[in-house]
Amino acid sequence: MNAEAKKKVDVLSDELLPYIIAEQERRTTLYKRIMTAIQNGEKGVTIAEIRNKPPLIIRKGLFYRCPSNRAPKEPDGSGTLMCEEDIEPTQIMYDSCLSAEDKDLYVVADSKYFFCNRHNVEGPDLPRNGSTVIGCPPMERTSLNYTTTKCALEDTDDVVVHYRYYPDRSYKFVMELDPDHEVCDHWNPCQIGYIYSLPSPDQAVLANELWRDEDAIEEFVHSNSVNYTSSPRRVPIPSGYKFQKLWAKRTIDGFGWNPQANKWHATADIKQDAKFVTVRLNFPENWSDFFYSTYYAVFVRDDHTRRSKKSPQKSVKFLTITMSNAQVVPNLIQMAHGNITNNTQIPYKCTRCHLQGIMVRTPDGYVHNVDPAKYRIKDVDRKQTLEIDLEDIKPSEVGDFFAMIQNADGLEERVKVLTIQAPGKNN
What we know:
- By secondary structure, the chain is mostly beta strands.
- Helices cover 11% and strands 39% of the residues.
- It contains 3 helices and 29 strands.
- It starts with a helix and ends in a 6-residue tail after the last strand.
């Protein structure tokens, strides 16, 4: 291109720039309205379709998803949400593919890159002398690798979302949504394709791991539970002390009892090394209200430190078992040479409850969340089943799966629904 031609192109680009910016702003405004589905009467409904994921229903900024193999029914303008065969969709807290667009990418030790799907939390960064880091609890994270694999186009970092917006039936003036009618030339539905790029690892914000084992204190168990086994708990041994015994206090009245020797036939598996005591509690077929207790590991001073000013005994709380409204019989699956079944179905019963998420607690005490696209509640003949996809589970991710459930009182319960054991291991 000669100098004169290049000059003309530059002039033309300068003249067109304001129009290009205006067009981008208009389409962005349109996208945001469609994304949140808030229009006249707040009855607008959006269907979002993303690669490798079941369709997502959005209304008033809230997310819903239909059961497996049930597509959303086309909205009729009334604001009612329904799936095929007149099944109601289940509300979900977030979708990792959509939340990744406007969330920061974080990295912690061992090059673990993740997005915070819902909330950013500021916490003290003790290793750096009182400075502050921003991150989120493990149960609200989705890894960059999983997001790229499940959301982006193959061999790219680009995520494409196709939106279909169905306005309130009484809302007839699409021109307010899209004045130029380039996208919305009719009112039912208005469609737009949207694309954004995932950040690269070099754009990640450094954060320290502040939430290790914060989930490790409470498990919720139904009163009809049979042969329940707690998740293994790693209890750090205080410096200068050695493990002596376990102790428990019943929640209702503080009555003390011994989880290792008692008339209710509860037992404990205990493993010990130089730094930790690992405890797993085993409960009998007949559940007792005594098991709703807080459990402690009791340590005594080493013989070499008896003359020190340290207390002769220390009790470390490691588990609280609380009554649950959800009735679940946890499944147990053994991995065979790194292979596992594609999915598992778990009978699930909880009146007026909402499944908020599923997290995995590994035997070494780390936790990570399961992407919402990998689990769902299915209703078959008026019976609920929790289905979890396991095809991407790696040997390093095995452990106890906990469902985080919001009960009818609005309180969160963490209920064990599944245990996956690595070959040759008894977690």
